[in-house]
Amino acid sequence: MMKIQQKIQNTPQKELMAVLGLSRPLISDIQNGRRELTPEQEEKLTDYFTFVIDESSIRVNIPQKNSQKFKQVFLYILHQVGAKPNVGQTVLYKLLYFIDFDYYELYEAQLMGLTYIKNNYGPTPREFKTIIDEMVKQESIDIVQTKHFSHTQTKYLPVIKPDLSLLSAQELTVIDHVLARLSDYSATQLSNLSHTDTPWCLAKKKGNLEYEHVFYRNDQLSVRDYETL
């Protein structure tokens, strides 16, 4: 607990507000030792701090092609479903995951090619923070904190439109299918669903999810008709 408390004290309040979904006064109380973390909050922060370390040490250089593709997909998602009250950061993580892994199962090729880590709350793209920081600097998106029920939620607002010339009709079809199927799910529902997917089940904790494992999915999540092959 001592190590995590030191990290909490050295982390900007806005960042902690986004991770824990708490107001600034509550975050201030936690940083100053006036309020103890619940077991769930401690687990969230442990996941987050591990993720930040992994992101900076494992994959710093992101191929330009992958980065550009991600930016256009992300902008497209925000324009299509970003205004829905349930679509905050956690839901976006899972939508990106299912888009990437559904596409790979269907076509045996990568769409965005992001690397996903196995966190307790489901797949998390390692490159997310790095690319999002770029998009904020480029004034492509804005980040705001809103209330969703009793929790503070991180929302992303598109400032510009996606460049659809960088996305094929095949890619857009897969994206649209995932959004139609899953964008109304809550963060908890999507996390639980991702926990039943074979790539997540077979990965080691904090390890990468392997794209090849989509070919061993159960019937509920498989998107490919193997009988016609």
Describe this structure in words.
It is a single chain. This protein is mainly α and 229 residues long. The chain has two domains: 2-58, no CATH class; 64-228, no CATH class. The chain contains ten helices and four strands. The strands form two sheets. The chain has a two-stranded antiparallel sheet with strand order 1-2. The protein has a two-stranded antiparallel sheet with strand order 3-4. Strand 1 and strand 2 form a beta hairpin. Helix 6 (89-107) crosses helix 8 (169-182) and helix 6 (89-107) packs parallel to helix 9 (187-194). It is globular, with a radius of gyration of 18 Å. The N and C termini lie far apart (53 Å). Mean pLDDT is 86; it is low at 53-61.
Q: Which secondary structure elements does this structure contain, and how are they paired or packed?
A:
Elements: H1 2-9, H2 13-20, H3 24-31, H4 39-58, H5 64-81, H6 89-107, E1 116-119, E2 122-125, H7 128-137, E3 141-148, E4 151-158, H8 169-182, H9 187-194, H10 198-202
Antiparallel strand pairs: 1-2, 3-4
Helix pairs in contact: 6-8, 6-9
